[in-house]
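Lab notebook, bench 4. We co-purified these components, and the gel suggests they stay together. Before we commit to crystallization screens, I want a quick structural picture of the whole thing.
Request: model the full complex, all chains together.
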Amino acid sequence: MNLTRPRSNVRAMDLTPMIDVVLQLLIFFMFTSQFAQLTRTSVNLPEQAGDKDGGRSAPTITIDIGAEGRMLIESRMVEMAEVERIVRAEIDHAGGDAARVTVLLRSDRDLPALFVNGLALRLSALGVRGWRLGTSAPAGGGS
Amino acid sequence: MNLARGRGARHTYDLPLTSLIDVVFLLLVYFLLTLSLNQRESDLASALQQDKQGAGKAADLTPQIVRVELVDGKAVYRLGERVFGSQRDLRAVLEALPKEGGVFVRGSNLAPVSAVAGALQACKDAGFTKVTYVPTK
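Here is the predicted assembly.
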């Protein structure tokens, strides 16, 4: 006579560490992507709705131009020669094809276009064709 | 004689909710913190005019040229002989123009960047797909 209970073959999987690790990874990636955006300097961008097609690729280089006309890349102040060096490096990285390099220019809205023009002329001389002017959505959300 | 509990026995499995709640609250805090940090940004894409000239290939269609200038301390948009004081007026006129040749936007060195962005936005809103920015030397 067998009085022992039949052993169940079902093993309860402990989900706790898996959930922990997966969600911590999720948080990690979300934070790092957020930090990539936070390296952008706070700039008073022109208030425009911008392009409606949102499916474009991320820009290769983001250049900020602050209220005093100072250029910054990843919150680091740079001179024009340094910008040129970085752009050249990106062109080399793109296999020498300057058309594959896109520059996002985030300029202060009240700044004279002199600074933007100066930079655009240098980029144009380097063969860069694709560029974008950063804007911020109007407060009302309209265009 | 089988004294074990029969088929009707219930097997309950506890789902470990502690870590899930922990992480959900962390996510909540994260979103609350970052919500106000990031201003919603967009951009206006355009091509930069290149110095290289096409080898004897004359364009059949002449692009429209919008000039952004500063007159008496106020930014204005010039399209041919016409001068517009507002982005809306510029857009209304651009909408009626043929789009095939594209449009050039030339920002003078004194015009504010906001006005240059306004001209680019008006061109986009008017339906131009080929928008080229021509920097002033």
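The helical segments of chain A are 16-38, 80-93, 113-125. Worth comparing against the SEC data before the next meeting. Chain A has three helices and five strands.
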